[in-house]
From TrEMBL:
Protein name from the UniProt record: UDP-glucuronate 4-epimerase
Domain NAD-dependent epimerase/dehydratase: 3-268
Pfam family, one: Epimerase
Transmembrane segments: none
Organism expressing this protein natively: Maribacter ulvicola
Cited InterPro entries: Epimerase_deHydtase (IPR001509), NAD(P)-bd_dom_sf (IPR036291)
PANTHER family from the UniProt entry: EPIMERASE-RELATED (PTHR43574)
Length: 341
């Protein structure tokens, strides 16, 4: 298949694009390479995919020769309503995997406009292109943050998600609603994936795994929110990637057709890990005890996440299962090699 992967210079997008190429698909990666975090890490990911920094061209700089390989890359923002349709016209995608978004819960308190531009306006533009260019299947990233203040554990996709506690979560909930309406109105398949606390090599510098490791290595205290009384369903990047790729590759079976063109899955490790146990795993991998500064609960945060993945097991025979200690060790080894620490 010919597949568009948006957010291809990002953490999850990089791994999904790499896996799809390895499975023989033709992948066009798209990313605006914004400066929310260090762009050098984004370009390093692209380099792993065979794209040199000077080759990360904007859409209007492309030539025919740059878009006919197993992986090609285009620098473009989803909110660009002029050039995005031109990309769809030129490339004739079979499937779209939308992983591009303005990420981060806490940053949404400081810069809300970025979330509306990328996550709402950008997603609408993706939906319009899928409708107008007859895309068979749109797979898109949602988030466990949509569960907000839900108290029933574990979280199920059938739960009401009407109480988001951050603008980021609200934009992801809006994506699901928008996808539902487009599937209903125009009859193309949309599949939303609620990711649960993804971690692993090449991870984002604003995420706990990276922040904790970086602070410990540099002999700085780590910030522990809610005095450590947090639990997360930490999910290793390889498990997330496998789930996304299975859903992209699997044809729409009669079983799934009966469930309609709109579907949502949780992708999580089906286990809630205490934050302090997560920190302990990092300390053991680094053979160093962290200096800990305790902080109160932060706005937009939730105390606990935990995924029910029964639908994923039933429809795709898949369940993420990487143990936390193994995943943490893999990240620490990557961090040491990449930053030569």
């Amino acid at each position: 298949m010919k597949i568009l992967v948006t957010g291809a210079a990002g953490f999850i997008g990089f791994f999904v694009a790499k896996s799809l190429v390895n499975k023989g698909h033709e992948v066009v990666g798209l990313d605006n390479i914004n400066d929310y975090y260090d762009v050098n890490l984004k370009y390093a990911r692209l380099n792993e995919l065979g794209i040199q920094r000077e080759g990360a061209q904007a859409f209007n700089q492309l030539t025919e020769s740059t878009t006919h390989s197993a992986f090609s890359f285009i620098r473009l923002g989803l909110e660009d309503r002029e050039h995005l349709p031109k990309l769809f016209t030129a490339q004739k995608f079979d499937v779209v995997c939308n992983l591009a978004a303005q990420a981060g819960v806490r940053y949404s308190l400081e810069n809300p406009e970025a979330y509306v531009d990328s996550n709402v306006v950008g997603f609408l533009n993706i939906l319009e292109c899928c409708r107008n260019y007859k895309i068979k299947h749109l797979v898109y990233a949602s988030s466990s943050s949509v569960y907000g203040l839900n108290e029933k554990i574990p979280f199920e996709t059938t739960d009401a998600v009407d109480h988001p506690v951050s603008l980021y979560a609200a934009t992801k909930k809006s994506n699901e609603l928008m996808a539902h309406s487009y599937s209903h109105l125009y009859g193309f398949k949309t599949t939303g994936l609620r990711f649960f606390t993804v971690y692993g090599p090449w991870g984002r510098p604003d995420m706990a795994m990276f922040l904790f490791t970086d602070a410990i290595v540099n002999d700085k205290p780590i910030k522990v929110f809610n005095n450590g009384k947090l639990e997360r369903d930490f999910t290793y990047i390889d498990d997330i990637t496998e789930g996304v790729v299975r859903i992209i590759q699997k044809p729409v079976t009669e079983q799934l057709k009966e469930k309609g063109d709109f579907k949502i899955y949780n992708i999580g490790n089906s286990k809630s890990v205490k934050l302090m146990d997560f920190i302990t795993a990092i300390e053991e991998s680094l053979d160093t005890v962290a200096k800990k500064d305790m902080y109160p609960m932060q706005p937009g945060d939730v105390e606990k996440t935990w995924a029910n993945v029964d639908d994923l097991i039933a429809d795709y025979d898949y369940r993420p299962n990487t143990p936390i200690k193994e995943g943490v060790q893999q990240f620490v080894e990557w961090y040491k090699a990449f930053y030569k620490s």
